[in-house]
Design brief:
By secondary structure, the protein is mostly helical. The chain has 6 helices and 2 strands, in the order ααααββαα.
Length: 171
């Protein structure tokens, strides 16, 4: 299980690298659009739409990595105030709820993706693209989140019976 977790961590690191490159590309696109507008060249018509799509992808690509690193939103002041074993039990509740939500969004994302694909839905803005293209990452990202919740629960099962100290942003 430890080796799987390490390999999975490397996969998430790779996705974070892709997210960083997308952010860099977005910065260049927006910068080029601003320069083109100020030079009265008309700008880049699709820059706003592509930037929106990149922001969406950034969220989905980085969420599993952020969860693994403990950089997600987490208010654990209550866990620290409770008796250690009770705090540990609440960690389980949080992870189980996170897993359940992730599984729901895998199902929902797949359902929306399949419906969009079967209907041949098209997104018509500046660019005309099949709608399902942007829906593909949704169930995949939540699948990665679900896997991370499983790894978190595995780590929690082997940890002392107290609120976790791994994958938290502050101790």
């Amino acid at each position: 299980m430890h080796r799987l977790s390490l390999a999975y961590g490397r996969l998430l690191d790779g996705l974070m690298l892709v997210a960083c490159l997308l952010l860099l590309a977005m910065a260049f696109i927006i910068g080029a659009d601003v320069v083109a507008r100020n030079a009265r060249l008309g700008g880049i018509p699709w820059s706003g739409e592509v930037s929106e799509d990149i922001l969406y992808l950034l969220t989905l690509l980085t969420a599993p990595w952020l969860l693994r690193q403990g950089r997600h939103i987490r208010v654990d002041i209550l866990l620290r105030a409770l008796p250690l074993r009770l705090g540990w039990l609440f960690e389980w509740v949080g992870d189980l709820l996170g897993l359940a939500c992730s599984l729901y969004f895998i199902w929902y994302g797949w359902k929306v993706l399949a419906t969009s694909y079967q209907a041949g839905a098209i997104s018509i803005k500046t660019l005309v693209t099949p709608e399902w293209w942007l829906l593909v990452p949704l169930p995949l990202a939540f699948l990665l989140l679900a896997v991370e919740f499983i790894f978190r629960m595995h780590r929690l099962s082997r940890a002392p019976r107290a609120p976790r100290t791994d994958a938290v942003s502050a101790s």
